[in-house]
Amino acid sequence: MVCQEDLVSNVCEIYDKLSNLDSLKPSKEVNMIFTNLVQLCVPPSPIEVTKLPQHVQEMRSKLIKICGEAEGLMESHYSAILGSYESPLDHLHLFPYHTNYIKLGQLEFNILSQHYTHPPKQIAFIGSGPLPLTSVVLASNHLRNTTFHNYDIDASANSLASELVSADADLSQRMVFHTTDIMSVTDGLKEYEVVFLAALVGMDKESKIKVIEHLSKHMAPGAILMLRSAHGARAFLYPVIDAADLVGFEVMSVYHPTDEVINSVVISRKTPMVVHTHDHHRIGGVFLPCKCSNIQGFGNGKNMMEELTVEE
Question: How far apart are the first and last CA of the chain?
Answer without folding.
Answer: 41
